[in-house]
Amino acid sequence: MNIGILIEMEAGQVKGANFGMIAMAGKQVDADLFALVLDGVDDGVSKSLAFHGIDVIADICLPQDSGIKLNPDIRARAVAAAAEELGLDMLFGLSTALGKDLIPRVAALADAPLIMDCLDVDPAAKTARTSQYSGKVLADIQVVKGFSVFGIRPNAVSPSPAPGQTQTIVIDCTSLAPAGLTLVSWDQGTVSGDQPSLSEADIILAGGRGVRGKENFELLFDCAKIINAAVGASRAAVDENWISYAHQVGQTGEKVSPSVYLALGISGSVQHFAGMRTSGTIIAVNTDENAAMMANADYQVNADLFEILPELIRQLGIGTKIT
Amino acid sequence: MQIYVCVKHVPDSAANIHILDENRIDEDVAFLLNPYDEHAVTEAVKIREQFPGSEIIAVTVGKADAESTLRSAMAMGADRGIIVIADEGWDALVMARALAAAIREDGSPGIILTGKESIDAEGMQTQFRLGALLDMPVVTNASQLIIEKGRARVTCELSGGMTRTFEAVLPCVVAAGRGLNTPGYPTLPSIMKSRKKPVKEIVLNRLGLNPSVSSTKVVRLSPVTRTRSPEPITGSPAEIAGKIIKIIKKEGGLA
After folding, report:
1. Segment B32-61, tens digit of pLDDT
2. Quick check: A237 and A265 in contact, CB under 8 A?
3. Does residue A190 have a pLDDT over 80?
């Protein structure tokens, strides 16, 4: 069985979230694992992929022009062509913001079944587990046959290093040219680059109505910076314009699975749970002991977040180094 | 211009979902127009204002009762509706084929709008399949759409405030994100009027779809029952903070 893993890069390196996805594919011990890389393969990239058990690296070369190279239509056509050339049975890619605009394009081009935002995939049974109905239902969905595509939720599975030998092959897609879709411009946005993205962060500090103002969210950012966490928010906080929509967790925001979700002053609406229910450990801090978030957390702190948060910042500032 | 809007009839996100026979849900709950599709209908109305004489056609695939969702789309401004009646057993591949065939048979789209995902299956793929089947460019999670000179200029949101702007040649498929516009509540007169707007019914197997090579099937549905039993953390703020840090270090892999 040939399983392709579409690698998402950041600043020339393999993003950490890819390694859990490789581990998920690696459960199929007799499978050959192909890493599909669109953004250049250097020594560091191939070493980190070999360390996690990739057998073959497909270095897919795209046209040099960055507007063409970053065009999701071009990228999808290159990946679909590579999948065919490599004889892939399955393709895995991260269900990140970029992935949601790339993986389904590949599936559509190949007219292949697609399951997005998978929490797990069993390659032997051709079955994937994903959440449906606002995170209230876990669905096990089976692909009947043929080439199939899976979007994997970042952090759903932990990395599991499997060092081995890897070889690199080059797939030339430099002659691809834009058809009906042109990428005109792209903007890195307001979230600073040194913060982990919401969907990939191991730790999320999230604030809700209880944060009571824009300036108070600065406290969350201060604390998050020390522990390399991302800052999330409930829809209530976003609607009040205390923080931008880019930070919203929930039904209509980002869906996240961090190891630790610290919910500060979030009551815990059904829609908010839809975005963070699959978190590892949930810690709720709320003055209302009857808040839904308190009842559905692993740890509950019935206290004022403005007493706890400054204390967290103080103690972390003394005792912790950023990993 | 003919503006087609693909809409889906989905359970209300606030509904309690009960699972029957381990592979389907009890449909005796409130259903409504998929929230992201509301943004698509709202945008269609804006486009019709820009191009007077345009027609908005809402299209859905579902059981007969999905007609109520077509009526909602028509109360929000669609001129007429098409329902492809399909009972159980269709997946995303069939759904996209049915929508594409119904549109192709009905007219010639200037643009096709839909929501970026449905809140029931959360499949995130119909827009792309429509584009592939109808050979049209696709943009997803649109937060701004400007049509001029035969092209759509679309700004799309990524996470973390990142945006990308595309130009797509018309006709194209645009999937609406939440930032695209603010859907309004339909007025009572528009709801009354929507009841008289025409709806065309097509039975799925009349469309003569070419089946896809593969398909998906739901093997099992299970409720998310991970019940957490909350453990209280008590003490002074300093003690509580200390305990929280310990948990973050242990579970979050903080050194």
Report:
1. 999 999 999 999 999 999 999 999 999 999
2. no
3. no
Residues A100-128 have a mean pLDDT of 96
Mean of pLDDT values over B155-173: 90
Give the phi and the psi of residue A164 in degrees, each rounded to 5: -165, -175
User: Closest chain B residue to A323 measured between Cα atoms?
Assistant: B255
When computed from its CA atoms, the radius of gyration of chain A, rounded to whole angstroms, is 21
> What CATH number was assigned to the domain covering residues A198-319?
3.40.50.1220
List chain B residues with CB under 8 Å of A99: none
pLDDT given for residue A189 in this prediction? 60
Q: What is the tens place of the pLDDT at every residue in A11-28?
A: 889 999 999 999 999 999
Q: Is A321 on the interface with B (CB under 8 A)?
A: yes
Chain B residues whose beta carbon lies within 8 Å of the beta carbon of residue A185: 164-165
Is there a shared CATH topology between the A2-172 domain and the A198-319 domain?
Answer: yes
Q: Are A133 and B25 a contacting pair at CB < 8 A?
A: yes
pLDDT tens profile A242-252: 998 889 999 88
Query: Which residues, 6 or more positions from B191, have their beta carbon under 8 angstroms from its beta carbon?
Result: B75
Measured between beta carbons, the chain A residues lying within 8 angstroms of B222 are 137-138, 140
Nearest by CB to residue A140, choosing from B158, B167, B219, is B219
Q: What is the CATH number of domain B2-207?
A: 3.40.50.620
Q: How far is A307 from chain B (nearest CA, A)?
A: 6
Global pTM reads: 0.88
* Closest Cβ–Cβ partner in B93, B219, B251 for A142: B219
Q: Are A275 and B224 a contacting pair, CB within 8 Å?
A: no
Cβ pair A301:B17 closer than 8 A: no
Give A2-172's CATH code, choosing from 3.40.50.11090, 3.40.50.2020, 3.40.50.620, 1.10.10.10.
3.40.50.620
8 Å CB contact of A314 and B241 = yes
Domain residue extents for chain B: 2-207
Question: What is the phi-psi region of residue A97: left when phi exceeds 0, alpha when psi lies from -120 to 50, beta otherwise?
Answer: alpha
The predicted complex's ipTM stands at 0.92
Which secondary-structure segment (H or E) carries A74?
Answer: helix A72-86
Contact A116, B125 (CB under 8 A): yes
pLDDT higher than threshold 50 for residue A322? no
Domain locations along chain A: 2-172, 198-319
Q: Which of A258-262, B197-201, B222-226 has the lowest mean pLDDT?
A: B222-226
Q: Which residue of A has its CA nearest to B17?
A: A136
3-class DSSP state of B101: helix
